[in-house]
Amino acid sequence: MNIRNLVITAFRSLAKNKMRSALTSLGVIIGVASVIMMVGIGSSARIAVRDKVFTYGANAMSVTYRIKPFYEKDIEYLRRNVLQIKNITPVAARETVVVKYKNRMMRSRASGVNNEFFTIKEWPLQYGRYFTFLEIASYQKVVILGNTTRLELFGNTDPIGKIVLINNNPFMVIGSLSELGQALSGRDQDNVIILPYTTAAVKISGTRSFEEIIVATYSEKMINDTVTEIKEYFRREHAVPRNQPDDVKVSTSKEKLEMAEFISKTMSLLLAGIASISLIVGGIGIMNIMLVSVSERTREIGIRMAIGAKKNDILTQFLIEATTLSAGGGVVGILIGLLIYFAITAAVGWPFVFSFFSVFVSFLFSCAVGIFFGYYPAKKASSLKPIEALRYE
Amino acid sequence: MSNRVIDISNLVKTYQISEEVSVQALKGISLKVKHSEFVAIMGASGSGKSTFMNVLGLLDSPTSGRYVLDSIDVSGLNDNQKAEIRNYKIGFVFQGFNLLSRTTALENIELPMMYRGGVNAGEMRDKARGLLSLVGLAGREGHTPNRLSGGEQQRIAIARALINDPAIILADEPTGNLDTKNTIEVMNIFTRLNRELGITIILVTHEPDVADFTHRKVVFRDGEIIQDTPVRRGKTAGRKK
């Protein structure tokens, strides 16, 4: 019998038991739908995380020290001598401070920086202005508020020109930043106050040193060279002996991104793994029903054999039936999975990522499930003896 | 080509029940059936006639002996070759009709041709329709077996047996489940097929009335043929038109 006729025969058999066929496929439908959903949500989460990481600036890196702090001369040296550096800012007084305005008081995280900080962080102002050269040079007590700080202290009133107390020192508000949202760690990035680094060092920390330097290069390719040059400079400058480790630690956005990618990739693999278990359970469901079907249809198999069906014809027919159930379930599952995934991304506001690869693999996998779990029942059907099958009641 | 459709010599079938006990169901049967013959095989139950039919239909293998069907020695064929011979050379009609349930009359008739392959759907459909009207059931194409009477189901089964132009039709108690009226109807179809189309028919029955439709009576007892005689013309003459 040619394959076309076998396909027709198998389809007719399935059509005779529409309800049973649909229920048998249900396991695979649920399995494939959950795989598609989980993989999709995984990649959406990855993109959402990636966007968050990139708010630090794609080419940015942060330099922190172990023993000896940073000074103005370090900034000047790096700016002049490391040609890959596009922007550089010190970060002084990186600590929690008490901010008061009239009867309102809150804790906020201070950072003393220069104007390049806003460029590196890609963090625009919402109201007011940046620091002037004079304000930085003459230790002026001015402050730019983060969005949360502004809302807490001023509500919807205009903060510009008002005086707030920071650790009991009066500072004038000159600007306020746009909303940045939560960091990956869940910390509110908008609960901050930004000061000139000069003022912050002297008035808040009481030193002339800085705790961190943030650097941005012109392009991502320059990151590695820049890291090397910065490390070499500080080894010399901090006089680190040859057998000692670096005194500074440089962490790049790229590293954070890779870390975040790794975590979310592992998560989505895990989710897909759990989902594929349900796909295998679906396959076992198919085997179960096919086995029942073989014993129920023993007489039919006997009739087919008596009128000339070969063992292989019976085997192929049952395999086609099982594979049709699983592949059909796969297609329906893919559609349902995509639909639910789309609904979820629409609800949460994540990007919808259509992965042809995962659709293709799910489809292939569901076909494979049918062939794998359909083979044993099909083999059982084809090894019946025609005379015994015909007598079967 | 030989004139003989079936040439069987010394056919033995032994069932091994346990290591010591074996039952000889067929004890060296020899039988020759010529082209266009209409043969009734008779005998009480346990006489070996059903075993003989199963061997004739290549559903069961003999323990020893030679079986030539339509000039082909089928004694030593493997399962696939036997399936092919059953498909091409033999048309089966069973006591219990053995139609596929929830399958239309036309699809049931086409079934052997589906397994033959190499026939296009249109040709197959035309031939099945032709056979349906040959057995007097034109217009019932789309009916499933549960909507047909026993007699009608058996006529569908006969049409199915004919679709691959077999060398012989083997009918195992084809009227066993039918009332008298339907028995006569079915036997008239067999008679017509034999007389008008020259189809060789071998029919197992234990009803003498049914055997009277045939031309030759072979009687089995205890695994042996005890009688092989032509049916007297006079008896069937009355039923001729």
What does this structure look like?
The complex is a heterodimer of chains A (393) and B (241). Chain A folds into two domains: 3-52 and 261-391, no CATH class; 87-214, no CATH class. In chain A, helix 1 (3-16) packs across helix 11 (311-348) and helix 2 crosses helix 11 (311-348). A six-stranded mixed β-barrel of chain A has the order 3-4-9-6-8-7. Chain A has 13 helices and eleven strands. Chain A is 58% helix and 17% strand. Chain B has 241 residues and is of the alpha/beta class. Chain B contains eight helices and ten strands. In chain B, strand 9 and strand 10 (224-230) form a beta hairpin. The longest helix of chain B has 18 residues, at 180-197. Classes of the chains: A alpha+beta (393), B alpha/beta (241).
Residue-averaged pLDDT of chain A, rounded?
Answer: 89
- Reading side by side through the largest sheet of chain B, how are the strands ordered? 6-7-8-3-9-10
Question: Biggest sheet of chain B: strands, sense, closure?
Answer: 6 strands, mixed
CATH class of chain B reads Alpha Beta
Report the end-to-end length of chain B measured between terminal Cα atoms: 34 Å
Order of secondary-structure elements of chain A? HHEHEEEHEHEHEEEHEHEHHHHH
SSE arrangement:
The complex is a heterodimer of chains A (393) and B (241).
Chain A: H1 3-16, H2 18-54, E1 60-65, H3 72-81, E2 85-91, E3 96-101, E4 104-113, H4 116-120, E5 125-128, H5 133-137, E6 142-145, H6 147-154, E7 163-166, E8 169-177, E9 192-196, H7 197-205, E10 212-217, H8 223-237, E11 248-252, H9 253-296, H10 298-306, H11 311-348, H12 356-382, H13 386-391
Parallel strand pairs in A: 4-9, 6-8
Antiparallel strand pairs in A: 1-10, 1-11, 2-10, 3-4, 3-7, 5-8, 6-9, 7-8
Chain B: E1 4-16, E2 22-34, E3 38-42, H1 49-56, E4 64-69, E5 72-73, H2 79-89, E6 90-93, H3 105-116, H4 121-134, H5 150-162, E7 168-172, H6 180-197, E8 200-204, H7 208-211, E9 216-221, E10 224-230, H8 233-237
Parallel strand pairs in B: 3-8, 3-9, 6-7, 7-8
Antiparallel strand pairs in B: 1-2, 1-4, 4-5, 9-10
Helix pairs in contact in B: 3-4, 3-5, 4-5, 5-6
